[in-house]
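User: Can you predict the 3D structure for this chain?
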Amino acid sequence: MTGPEIDRAEIARSWLPRYTGMPLEKFGRYILLTNFNYYVDQFAKMFDCEIYGQSRPMQAASNGDGLTIVNFGIGSANAATIMDLLTAICPEGVLFLGKCGGLKASTEIGNFILPIAAVRGEGTSMDYMPPEVPALPSFKLHKFVSDRLVDRNLEYRTGVIYTTNRRLWEHDVDFRAKLARLTCIGIDMETATLFIVGHYNSIARGALLLVSDVPTTPEGVKTEASDAEVTSKWVDLHLELGIEAMTTIEKGGEHIRHFRY
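Assistant: Here is the predicted structure, written as structure tokens:
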């Protein structure tokens, strides 16, 4: 028994406002994604704009000049959901401002990482592309972000991020040994999913990650107090870099989508 065919685009157009509380016409062509309300609050203060979705699963705000920020929550399932729902507006570019754990001795709290790829350890992305497909950002979008970092004389790292669905893994000896073998620079719960679902939906995407903890060292495991310190020291800069990068793309007018084969 089969029911009536449901149009995927129609669902996205219905659910994006349902999840965020923001009408479709309020969304800009360029999107910043985050996991935390603080970023949305600061964005709204900077541009004196309204925050939508305070009682919804996701919160969003637009500056009225083509740029929107969305707090989609935490985890790969939410990452896939927002990248699917954004097909309702066909954005020109999406940049994830996320936090990650540093896995290298040279990666310190407060460092910025522009991931060149992500290992698909989360599982969610397997519903979109087979395991042979690498999770990659859009090169041109990352070039705009890199230029902003260089303009400010900020040092940053590049490397591969491991994305996992697991939150409490720090004391799993076997899992930590696996991370060491893979030589990843950082670990998070969203980047690979965002890259793959962005690829699946033909959305230009990237990520600028802030190292918020060093979970492979006893003193580096994230706590409420340590995360608050990271927020106070680096999150405003993180947000400013994202805004500058996406605003530059908008004004530059350069096409950043990859060809689809």
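The helical segments are 8-20, 37-47, 76-85, 139-151, 173-182, 191-200, 224-252. The longest helix spans residues 224-252.
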